[in-house]
Amino acid sequence: MSNLELPTVITAISNPEVEGFIAGALFAQGWSVIFRAIDCDSLENYTRTFPENTAAALLIYSPDLSGLTVVRLESVMRTVKAVVGFAREPEKVTGYSDVHAIPATTTDLVSLVRGFVRAPLIRQNTQLSRQSRRAHVLAVGSAGSGTGCTTLALNLAMELSVLEKSTLLIDANFRAPSIAALLAIRNVQSEAGWRTLAPGLSVAEISQDQALSIDSYMERATTTFDNIVIDLGSISGLSNRLTDRRWTSTMTTWSCDQGDEMMIVARADLLGVHRLEQVVALLGMTSIRSSISFTLNMRSQGRKGQEEEARFLSIAAPLRPTAVRVINRDSRAAAAAQAEKATFIEVNERSALRKSIAKIASEMKG
């Protein structure tokens, strides 16, 4: 299986209702369920007959499968890509590894199973508790290129810090990290944790080493700050990124499974609308734990802007987002901030652009 393909799955689950739920839920996500074993004999026969298919597959099993033993499972494990087990009372199961409680929802199932598709060095099985952590986590993703996603994330973080909320801004746009350049700071990635820029505001750029231990890094961050804003850059091809094995996808996966809100930023022009439609269609087939919101950036003035906003709302509405926000175009304020390598509040705190982002920050939890 290549890094970009969705995973193939083999089920070996005794309870037909549980197996039907798991197979159906994963199939609905676009994953291919290539075999559904009814007992251990049929499972072993399939793995011997189709070794190439088996080598790329994730095996999902239940310990009470007819004929299954720890020894037989260990033999099958050597022929598949990864293995995860489900049981009604996993605490009573002995001898079997990676056995979990049967998920109650599709989102819980997909979130857990994703981790077992990824390479062992990347997969982290820790599920952080949102109730116990301190930070409110907002991930900002771009529906295409040139949406102002990074600029919005940067200025939201600044506005949150102005509201006396300790805030960490994370540059997780591995393809084109930009925050350090926009603020004229150097060697951010070399920092072991994060660097303080202003009272209440810190910045980090995720390195490969940090990405490979992202759960422990984010656990520390979520207990240190009131708010965390993550710039993901483009989220095109989201489904593939949630299951591929590269370290560059770890922050996207963490944000979808552990973040509080995924804000998707789009432009109002023809290409921006096209990219937004693609992302919405993809999200409609992809279960994530994070709530979803949309922000239309660079909205035109007057009647044209009203038409842009109406179309934007019609595209976003089917996903039932928790919020839909609109930011008007303000080329002068944006150009001034870029020229001075500063945030909007530092350049012109009275600009309409700065006020609109400050309003969004004031509405955020944290």
What does this 3D model show about the protein?
This protein is of the alpha/beta class. It folds into two domains: 8-117, Rossmann fold (3-Layer(aba) Sandwich), CATH 3.40.50; 136-363, 3-Layer(aba) Sandwich (Rossmann fold). It is built from 16 helices and 13 strands. It has helices at 16-28, 40-49, 51-55, 70-77, 106-117, 149-162, 179-183, 208-211, 214-222, 238-241, 250-258, 270-283, 302-316, 331-340, 344-347, 352-363; strands at residues 8-12, 32-37, 57-61, 82-87, 99-101, 136-142, 167-171, 195-198, 201-205, 227-234, 261-266, 291-299, 323-328. The protein has an eight-stranded mixed β-sheet with strand order 8-9-7-10-6-11-12-13, with helices on both faces. A five-stranded parallel β-sheet has the order 2-1-3-4-5. Strand 11 (261-266), helix 12 and strand 12 (291-299) form a beta-alpha-beta unit. Helix 6 (149-162) crosses helix 16 (352-363) and helix 12 runs parallel beside helix 13.
Helical percentage = 40-55%
Query: CATH first level of the largest domain: which class?
Result: Alpha Beta
Which residues sit in consecutive blocks of at least 5 with pLDDT less than 50?
A: 119-128
* Distance between the ends: 41 Å
CATH superfamily of the largest domain: P-loop containing nucleotide triphosphate hydrolases
Question: Structural class given helices, strands, pairing?
Answer: alpha/beta
**Percentage of β-strand residues:** 15-25%
Give the SSE string. Answer: EHEHHEHEEHEHEHEEHHEHHEHEHEHHH
Rounded average pLDDT: 88
Biggest sheet: strands, sense, closure?
8 strands, mixed
Tell the overall outline.
elongated
Say how many strands there are: 13
Radius of gyration: 23 Å
CATH domain topology of the largest domain: Rossmann fold
Biggest β-sheet: strands ordered side by side in the sheet:
8-9-7-10-6-11-12-13
Question: What's the structural domain tally?
Answer: 2
Number of alpha- plus pi-helical segments: 16
The CATH architecture assignment of the largest domain turns out to be: 3-Layer(aba) Sandwich
